[in-house]
């Protein structure tokens, strides 16, 4: 019986040796036929740090100036201040298809200082600017159009604001409305028709 065990052990060793994988001392290039083809698809995830908003520019059609909404994106968490900063600081560009032919009456020199909710009415926004009113600022139709852009942008349904009051460097300013009359009252979208 012991002999059979020895024979079985030897046969097992021979079989085990036959099943080993040969090794090479040098790297071997695999042929293309045994390497599976892989395709990598890259998808760009939406930018979680940006959100879509709407700002209002001007468009002249057949001699009539109209307010026109334009989609933009701003940094998440910047609120209405971020929306208005975009309106003030990013001029319309024909390189963006939605902005072809759009203009703005907000001068390059104008600055948005702040946009904060009123203490008396949380649906009213206080917009403080520099270089928009008075000396060094703009007047008449251009001022009315610039204020219309600001009011329509600030009171977009996403913002939650319904009216706007203006200040220049902290000092209250009257707003020009559609008929070029000035008012110290809060102004709303209805004070600026979309056609002028």
What does this structure look like?
25% of the residues are buried. The chain has one domain (50-190). The termini are far apart. The chain is of the alpha+beta class. It is globular. The protein has helices spanning 2-18, 79-89, 140-154; strands spanning 50-61, 64-75, 102-103, 111-117, 124-130, 163-168, 171-173, 175-176, 182-183. It has a 4-stranded mixed beta sheet, with helices on one face. A 3-stranded antiparallel beta sheet has the order 2-1-3. Helices cover 22% and strands 27% of the residues.
Q: Can I get a quick summary?
A:
The chain is an alpha+beta fold. It has three helices and nine strands, in the order H-E-E-H-E-E-E-H-E-E-E-E.
Indicate the proportion of strand residues: 25-35%
Calculate the mean pLDDT score and round it.
82
Overall outline: globular
Number of helices: 3
For the largest beta sheet, what order do the strands appear in spatially?
4-5-6-7
Structural classification: alpha+beta
* Strand and helix order: HEEHEEEHEEEE
Radius of gyration: 35 Å
End-to-end gap:
113 Å
Low-confidence parts, pLDDT < 50 over ≥5 residues? Answer: 18-24, 26-45
Structure summary, number of beta strands: 9
Give the helix proportion (percent range): 10-25%
The major beta sheet can be summarized as: 4 strands, mixed
Count of discrete domains:
1
Present the secondary structure layout.
Blueprint lengths: L1 H17 L31 E12 L2 E12 L3 H11 L12 E2 L7 E7 L6 E7 L9 H15 L8 E6 L2 E3 L1 E2 L5 E2 L13
Parallel strand pairs: 5-6
Antiparallel strand pairs: 1-2, 1-3, 4-5, 6-7, 8-9
Helix pairs in contact: 2-3
